[in-house]
Amino acid sequence: MTASIPPGWYDDPSAPGMERWWDGAQWTESSRPRTDSGPGVPPGPGHPADQMPPGPGYPADQMPGGLSAPSHTPPYPQYGPYGPGGPGPNNRNRNILIGVVSLLVVGGIVAALIVLLGGGDDGASVATEGRATDPTSGVSIPLMKGWQHDSKRPTLQATGRYPCPDESGGASDEPSDSPSDMPSADASAGSGVDLSGCYLGQIVVGGHEADTFEEAIQKVRDDDLNDKDMKVTKTLKDEDITVDGKKAHLLRVEAEDAKPAADGSKHKGTLQAVVIDSKVEEDGSTGYPVVYVAIDDASNAPPKGVLDTVIDGIKVGQPQPSASAS
Hints:
This protein is mostly beta strands. The chain has a domain at about 130-165 and about 195-315: Protein Transport Mog1p, Chain A. The chain is about 10% helix and about 30% strand. The chain contains four helices and 16 strands. It has helices at about 90-95, 100-110, 215-225, 305-315, and strands at about 10, 20, 25-35, 50, 130-135, 140-145, 150, 155-160, 190-195, 200-210, 230-245, 245-255, 270-275, 280, 285-295, 315. Strands 7, 8, 9, 10, 11, 12, 13, 14 and 15 form a nine-stranded mixed beta sheet that branches. A four-stranded antiparallel beta sheet has the order 1-2-3-4, with no helix packed on it. A hairpin with a 6-residue loop joins strand 7 (about 150) and strand 8 (about 155-160).
């Protein structure tokens, strides 16, 4: 697959905010600050781009398992486990798209929805700052202003970190002593940090392995929205849409915990999935990208306007070469 990728500037996840020149066969040492203009032209011989030693490879090869704390992260049954010490670049090539059941169902919607009524203002405007691209699918999304960006997965962004529920499934009233459940001292808006944990708002580009677009949509319904720990209480949207000139399907639901916590309360929130008809093929596997958004029902949660802002900002580009390609 990488042999068909044309020369150009592509996001370099090993250096957030930077692009590196791909000469059509391998990475070069030329880099520059990331722009939103797409692939450009090679630097001229008299005006070389900033130079840097070759990076260690895409951090996605060591990406964490999901949005929940590590102790709550099961392996991905479709693609094999990801995480520190997990599969290397060759296995990653076979694992086309990130499994998302553990990302937003186990680690996001169930663990990251808190019990507060009257969530963010649906009509509030949402500011953005730059873009992030998923290198496997080429899908890019806007970055929400003030949100934190994951240091190992370019499109993963979150805001409003708080202690995860305890192992019994109920929401903990006391702050956790676990560093993974609490904000780090240097976690500032926009900085590249490890976003394991529970958040009021989460966005990520994932996907499902499927032979057809219709199968991918059904997998979102069956796998992401039909979980034993989560109950869909209302379907808000289930319709075909267009994103960046591409056919897509929008699923937006209200959901809550299947079982109440010890105090009788249930976590509630909104989950959105946009399945894009942009087939990704690599090493005999086929998949379709899915853009996920999860917003808590909480007075201090992000505005629901984030849902439409993400849809309006989706761009479908070319898959990017693996950092280990040569």
